[in-house]
Amino acid sequence: MFALMAADLVVLVHALFIAFVVLGGLLTLRWSRAKWVHLPVAAYGAGIELIGWTCPLTPLENALRRAAGGVDYRGGFVEHYLIPLIYPAGLTPQVQLVLGLLVLAINVLVYGIVALRRRRRRAGD
Q1: What is the rounded distance in angstroms from the CA atom of residue 119 to the CA atom of residue 124?
Q2: Is residue 72 a contact partner of residue 59, using CB atoms and an 8 Å limit?
Q3: Of 18, 32, 54, 61, which is most buried with the most CB atoms under 10 A?
Q4: CA–CA separation, 23 and 34 (whole Å)
Q5: pTM over 0.70
Q6: InterPro entries of this UniProt entry (predicted)?
């Protein structure tokens, strides 16, 4: 029972991690110091998609599911939980590339806005 609840908690943390990777740069629009947390997290998230790094949360979730007597799954969190919702046909290397580039594009856009705001504030001083 505990292991199954822990596995579900890992799923929640994993989903929040992904949301922070993709959208966390928006926090810098309000709190500029958020970049010190978000930039390394976004880089790691992009590395997972672009380079194929393994996110440690997926093996942890699978181990907890096995410990609870359940069945684990192959592949990663995105393939197991998100891709079936977004891309029912499955994840291809091309889709993975697009996802990684999307993460980078969103964050380049957000940090570009942050940089412009900072430049305008300094020019107004």
Answers
A1: 9
A2: no
A3: 61
A4: 12
A5: no
A6: DUF2784
Each residue's pLDDT tens digit, 35-57: 999 999 999 988 888 887 878 88
Check residue 90 and give its pLDDT. Answer: 61
Amino acid at 4: L
Q: Which residues contact 83 (CB under 8 A, 6 or more apart)?
A: 90, 91, 95
The H or E element spanning position 49 is helix 35-50
Return the ∠ at Cα 64 (arms to 62 and 66), rounded to 5°. 70
3-state secondary structure of 43: helix
pLDDT at 85: 61
